[in-house]
Every structure is written in structure tokens, then in C-alpha cells.
Amino acid sequence: MTSLDEEQLLAFVDKMPAFRGSVQRLLVLAADLDADSREIVQVIETDPLMTVKILKVINSPFYGLAQKISSVQRAVVHLGINTIKNLALSVAAIGVLPSQNQAGFDTHAFLLHSLTSAALCKLLAERLNVSSMQSSDYFVAGLLHDFGKIVFAEFIPATYKQVLHAARAQEINLFQAELDLLGTDHSRAGKLLAQHWGLADELIEAIDHHHSEHRHTQLGDCLFAANQISKKLQFGFAGNPVVDELPPGTARVFGMNLEGLIADLGDLSPIKNEALAFID
Amino acid sequence: MKFKFWGVRGSIPTPGPNTVEYGGNTTCIEVKNASNDLLILDAGTGIFALAQTLGQAPVVAHILITHTHWDHIQGLPFFLPLLSAQNQIHLYGGMDPVTQQGIERALTVQLQYSYFPIIESQLKAEVHYHTLRPGEALQIGSTKITPTVLNHPVLNLGYRLDDSDGGSLFFTGDYEAPCNLYSADDPDYVSNQQFIEARLREVHAAMRGVDALIVDSSYTDAEYVKKAGWGHGTYGAALQLARQVQAKKLFLTHHEPTRSDRELEAIFRDVLAKAGPTDFEIALAREGVEHVLR
């Protein structure tokens, strides 16, 4: 990263709070001895900050994993629901992300884009016959792919406001505006953070390459398509006014272009409604 | 290698006439290996009586903590060798995922002015803290020790001990096999089942073929219905585990604090009857009894 202080960025993100809705729901569930563990898992799975905290801890060398874990449910199997719940509570204790930030970045719309990208990424994984054990990793990739944006919006709000404005005014890809004004972009910031936290290589690579000429992995293809579908159908908004066509390699994997894929997937409104149910 | 139970009770000490046979102290197991090192698994209240047997000679003790719930650390401040400068105490445990602190915290938290008359800086013994990583073996004298994460409401390490004399032992600490949170018609059921099976394969591999398998067996199947998720196992699950990992002898421990000796024996008779013939021996862990492996 050229123009941002990495050390400062990492320290900042470690203290970043989670989204208001998830913090509130988690606190209610945690106060109930008979709370349904599935609901607790769901709250964590639908909050990027809580998910990141769990993955960061579970993948540290202190917990003896044979391979990295990119799924909250799998982390629960490994460390138990009570420990996972308390990890999430330690995030909830930081506070809540303000709904209005100085960057003018709409966190509600951002979360909707992240959640629908996650659900779509998992849906596309199933379409490509990815094993059910892996498909929750695809959900996480969708949830976290734009993580760098919320970090920028909180970390450098005034500059990021200009970035968002430039992308909108010039109708250019947000990452392009980021590169122009920040000298880096949200996928690189996301990659840097994911690397620092020791997340799985596939997840790091998917976050890193979700805009640039990505290497064709199944996860990369699903994430690219999921992101474009979410934008095209205007399921939330994460600051990028441009919808890209599927690169030829990705279109080949799905056997059709973006428009064809959207048509073929049928009615996707339940994905948006389900995500909205979590957020509101 | 030989080992002796100094505490077999779960949750809280239960002194009194109804527990004299199996004992009322909370978890503590003493292990003597071929190189005559003193290893102690967990520091429940049983560790106090153990300490009385150590005599006046300098002590080097290796205390391995499975997890930091009270009944497994409560005896630590009363482990008297901590108070003498001639002694060396090594304390081993995992890195708590939530506090991101190692086993040193178990002593620090207990040795506070409000809760105990002695503060940490007054301990005269040389105390060394070791944060263990699951799957990474540690050598103490003739014994190789391998920790494994086992499901409980707090980070819990099961310990496998392999001695150069050929004897082997696995102690679960507190353990409940992970169960699927989702019902069979839930879309997350299948993947969760696969996560659990993959995890169980690793756990079973860590216990495979031990001479002594010491397992948290808190509940009967009937009791478990109301206690699922509390982090403890059942007699039935322990038996199944011993069968799966081909253990030579199974010890059932972490006896419920409400159980009298008579009740415990009645349950044990029932467990044996239900088990039918097995390839391994089954015993109730009993305070004060020593077992020799090889």
C-alpha cells in the first residue's frame, strides 16, 4: 500500500465495532441461557466484523487446525458455541458502527450488498457442484470481499468521501477511483488485512482478485459473478456505480454471460428479502 | 508409567459420608513416568492432598491444565510447593481464544487480594508458564505429551501421554462430543455433519490405541437430554469412544456432585449390563487408586 500507514490501519481495524443490528441481536441472545445456538451462529455469520474476528482467532496457530477454516459454523464445531459467542461478544463490547459516517458511506446499503453477494456466491457454488462442506466458505468470501471499503470509510472518511464522489461523478469503477486518489484499492486493503489475520489462502486470493484480472478459480468465478449480480439487481449499494460483464473465462464456467446467468437463476428477490430481514 | 486419581468429582467438591468411596475432590491426576518426573493433570482440589505426599526434598512439578473452569484450577493456590524457593513448577495450558492470554492468567486471577491472602509476587518457587499449541508435542523426560482441542464451553485441551516404557494415556478433561445444531431438514445440516465427522476423525486419531482412556462421563443418557450443550459427556458416549479408538482400558470420571457412592455404583452396573462384552476394561475413576501401565 502506498499512501496508507499499514500499522495504523491494522490497529484501527482491530478496534472497529460491528453493525448495529447484529450487536443488538447478539446481546439479547447472549443474555438468554436458553438461546438457540443456531440464531447466535446466524448473527455472527451475517456480520462481517464478527465473522472476521472468529476467523482471525480460529486460524491462529494456537488452535491446532490441520487446515484453515473459512466458515463460522466450522469454527463452532472446533471451539464450541460458547467460546465463539464470547468472541463475538468481545466485538459487540466495542460498540456499534455509526449509521452515518463522515464519508457519506451508507453502511446499511453496504451490508445489504455484502450479504446478498454472500448468498449469491453460495448459490453459484451449488450450481457448480461445489461440496456442501466448502459452500459456507463461498458465503464468507461474498460477505468479506468488500471489507476494505468499510475500513476506508471509517479510517479515512474525508478522503473516502472524495473517492465515492469521483466514482459517482465519472461513472468509473470504485476501485479505479480508489487507485487514483488513494494509491491503493479496497481489494488490496482487504487482502492485506486477511493476510495479516492468517485467513485461508483461497479467501485471501478471492478478496484480492475480485476486481482485477483474477485467476480463474471456482471461488474467484463465483465471487466475481455474485458481486456483479448483486450490483446489477441493485441489492444494496457499496459505492460502485459500474457493473462489469463476466470475463470470458468466468462466462465459460457458467456457460452464459451475466444477463443470461441472472435470467437463468430465476427470481432472486428472496435473497434480498432474507438479507433485509437480518439487517432491519 | 503409572497414574493415580486424586480428584474425580466434577464441578464442586463433595465431601461427606456418601462420597467416601469414590472421593469428593475435584479433578486431579498424578502421573509418574519412566524417568520419574512428576506430571499432574489438572489442579482441582485433589492437588492439595497430592502435595502433602511430596515431602521436603526439592520438587519439580509439571502441571498440565485442560481448561480453566474452577473445578480444574481451584487447587492451584493450595499447591504448597509454590511457596518454597527450592521448587520448580511448570504450568502448561492453552491460549484462551477470548482473552488471548495463556495459563498464567489462571493463577493471576485467583491470587488477588480479595480472593486469596497470598499474591502472585509472593510465590517463592520458580514458576514457568508454557502456552501449548494443539497437535504440537511436548517432551517431559520420558514422556511425549500431545494436546488436542476438545469441545467444551471454554477452550479445553485433552492430553495424550506416550511414555518411553510403552505406556500411554489420554485424558479428555471436560468433553462433550460436538453435536449438530441443525435438524435434518435444515440446509446447513449436511455440511455441519461433515464438519463434525471430520473433527471426530482428528479427535479419535489423537486417542487411538491408548492403554488408559480417562473420559468425562458426567451423565446418564436420560440426564443428558436436559444437559446437552453443557460440555460434558455421557457413560454411553465414553463407551462408544473407547470402542472407536480401541482403548485398552476406559476410566469414567467427572462424577456428578449429586451422586452418592451407591448411586454411582448402581449406574455403573447398569452401564456394564448395557455395554455387554467389550474388548476393553471399564472402571469408575476412584480417588486414591493407582494404576500401572506396562
From TrEMBL, chain A:
<dbReference type="InterPro" id="IPR013976">
    <property type="entry name" value="HDOD"/>
</dbReference>
<dbReference type="InterPro" id="IPR052340">
    <property type="entry name" value="RNase_Y/CdgJ"/>
</dbReference>
<dbReference type="InterPro" id="IPR003607">
    <property type="entry name" value="HD/PDEase_dom"/>
</dbReference>
<protein>
    <submittedName>
        <fullName>HDOD domain-containing protein</fullName>
    </submittedName>
</protein>
<feature type="domain" description="HDOD">
    <location>
        <begin position="16"/>
        <end position="213"/>
    </location>
</feature>
<dbReference type="Pfam" id="PF08668">
    <property type="entry name" value="HDOD"/>
</dbReference>
Automatic annotation (TrEMBL), chain B:
<dbReference type="InterPro" id="IPR036866">
    <property type="entry name" value="RibonucZ/Hydroxyglut_hydro"/>
</dbReference>
<feature type="domain" description="Metallo-beta-lactamase">
    <location>
        <begin position="25"/>
        <end position="232"/>
    </location>
</feature>
<dbReference type="InterPro" id="IPR001279">
    <property type="entry name" value="Metallo-B-lactamas"/>
</dbReference>
<dbReference type="Pfam" id="PF12706">
    <property type="entry name" value="Lactamase_B_2"/>
</dbReference>
<protein>
    <submittedName>
        <fullName>MBL fold metallo-hydrolase</fullName>
    </submittedName>
</protein>
